[in-house]
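Researcher: Next entry in the queue.
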Amino acid sequence: MRHPIIAIDGPAAVGKTTVGRRLAERLGWTFLDTGVLYRALAWRALQDGVAPNDEARLAAMARGLEVQVSRPTIADGRDADLRLGGRDITWEIRAPAVDRIVSIVAALPAVRAALVPAQRRAAAAGPAVVVGRDIGTVIFPDAALKVFLLARPEERARRRARDLAARGAPSEPTAVLADLQRRDALDSGRAHAPLAAAPDAVSIDTEGRSVDEVVAAVLRLWQARHAGAG
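Model: Structure for this entry, 230 residues:
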């Protein structure tokens, strides 16, 4: 019997990772942020001088990408440890340079196809909370619960700017907003697996709500769904 999956999708900086991580902790489930795979690939492309639109080379890199995701071992605000070839790149993949190209890389059909098996394998060991942009529509279309998180671009930009400042990388709010809007357009407009809420997803507006409030809302949905199934 396949283990249950809670799929959480939404645009950049809406809080998917933080909400998903905390929800998984509450449930005692595995947590997987699929976006780190795309970020790790984008980071590797920058290191190797591969253009973000070189689909053939990036797809080949994706097939051989050995990324290890595990519970955090350093109390520096990270949601998980991310290692590539033994190197801790947890924060390196969050750099502005990666932000600028990750949506371009993720829009390439061959890259997305190459990473699907890895995403499914990573969540195969047991019940899992999986977050991304196409989890409920492509990766796990039969997920037991699908949630789509929302917030205005201005609110998401404020959160992203705050997080960057906390990591010692302050950015102009207007520049952060412009980058988020560009990424939204790329993610929603790509031909293959665009950012979109699944028809059976439950939308939750996170604006004006704390992380714990959003987690509680998703947990109530799961408990109602689970009770109904039982």
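Model: The mean pLDDT is 90.
Researcher: Noted, moving on.
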